[in-house]
Automatic annotation (TrEMBL):
<dbReference type="InterPro" id="IPR054566">
    <property type="entry name" value="ManC/GMP-like_b-helix"/>
</dbReference>
<dbReference type="Pfam" id="PF22640">
    <property type="entry name" value="ManC_GMP_beta-helix"/>
</dbReference>
<dbReference type="Pfam" id="PF00483">
    <property type="entry name" value="NTP_transferase"/>
</dbReference>
<dbReference type="InterPro" id="IPR051161">
    <property type="entry name" value="Mannose-6P_isomerase_type2"/>
</dbReference>
<feature type="domain" description="Nucleotidyl transferase">
    <location>
        <begin position="16"/>
        <end position="287"/>
    </location>
</feature>
<keyword id="KW-0548">Nucleotidyltransferase</keyword>
<dbReference type="InterPro" id="IPR005835">
    <property type="entry name" value="NTP_transferase_dom"/>
</dbReference>
<dbReference type="GO" id="GO:0004475">
    <property type="term" value="F:mannose-1-phosphate guanylyltransferase (GTP) activity"/>
</dbReference>
<feature type="domain" description="MannoseP isomerase/GMP-like beta-helix">
    <location>
        <begin position="326"/>
        <end position="376"/>
    </location>
</feature>
<protein>
    <submittedName>
        <fullName>Mannose-1-phosphate guanylyltransferase</fullName>
    </submittedName>
</protein>
<dbReference type="InterPro" id="IPR029044">
    <property type="entry name" value="Nucleotide-diphossugar_trans"/>
</dbReference>
<dbReference type="InterPro" id="IPR049577">
    <property type="entry name" value="GMPP_N"/>
</dbReference>
<keyword id="KW-0808">Transferase</keyword>
<dbReference type="GO" id="GO:0009298">
    <property type="term" value="P:GDP-mannose biosynthetic process"/>
</dbReference>
Amino acid sequence: MEATNDVDSTATNIVGVVLAGGIGSRLYPASRGHRPKQFLSLFGNRSFLTRTVDRLRGVTDSVFILTRDEFVEAVTEQVSDVTVITEPARRDTGPAALYATQHIRKTYDTDPVVLLAPSDHVVGAGFDTAMKRMSTVAAKTDRLVTLGITPTRPETGYGYIEPAESSNTVDNINGDAVSWQSVHSFHEKPKPEMAEQYIEAGHYWNAGIFAWRPTVFNAVVADSPLASLQVVLRDDTDKSVADAFAASDSQSVDRAIFEQSEATAVVPTEMIWDDIGTWDAFDRLATQDELTDGTVDTQAVSGHNKQSNTTTCEETVTVGDVEVQVIDGTDNIIAGNGGHISAVGVSGLIIVTWDDRTLVIDKDEAQSVRTLVSKLRENGVF
């Protein structure tokens, strides 16, 4: 789809929206219902949320944080100078994106680029360039834009974006051509064999970072499963909006909006990125210095009784403020927010002690923490 205007992204307001209403349950027990992942400081002194906001400040004109009522106090304690939007209920990223976009549309007289990002990922080199390219495509085409990360491994914990074969370009303000492709389809988290096939086919990781103009977004939503919610948001009465949210299904922005439209684009990037969604991700973090980009305190050292935010102890990664003693054990991940943990004769484990909770799980089962959390919720002890 060709652009209907010649506005440069630098002449268009770019508004960052940080999604901070989730839990990050796979990092249990550090992440809990009352203490979501985005508020944790697992490496260094800054939380996932503050790192995200700081990154967006450099590439946007203003930043908003979308969260839930119960998290507003924690948000403002960590980021006091950012406008906070509260969604009526947690309904995944689809309704959240619609709610935030409607708020931005009413706040700005222009048609700004909305840059939507999760609050709990780790990003290194290439972020600024990737965001500027996304914003340029969103500003200069009538498309919903997503970011595609070039994969470095057959990861089964991420979704994938299948691009169209042909490539397109738009001119940036400095005259450089920004490449983008139409989105052919989105794929959920695959089995290992399928992940390898996706990489061979040139698919991208789905980082959950999006950009669009409200006029384009609303036109697509009008023919999507979120159309009825969109109508209620336009009427804008507190009770009707709350009722409509409560009645809405939980849907991702990918499934509810992007998959309903052909007016989509993916901007590829080799930006260093990791969602640190599960405890085994710290194996990567401990060895990938390029991921830190000077903002994540990561080091690899050997020996016993080492205390650090993220270190390697006898091939065991330690996370948080914890002392570790390992004897005859390798390839473990040990995390805690205080105290001392000893491990003797065990390998390939994740051992986490946080406050009054302890988790012990095989590293190969790291994704299964989600299943555990579901069970804990059923029993009212999450």
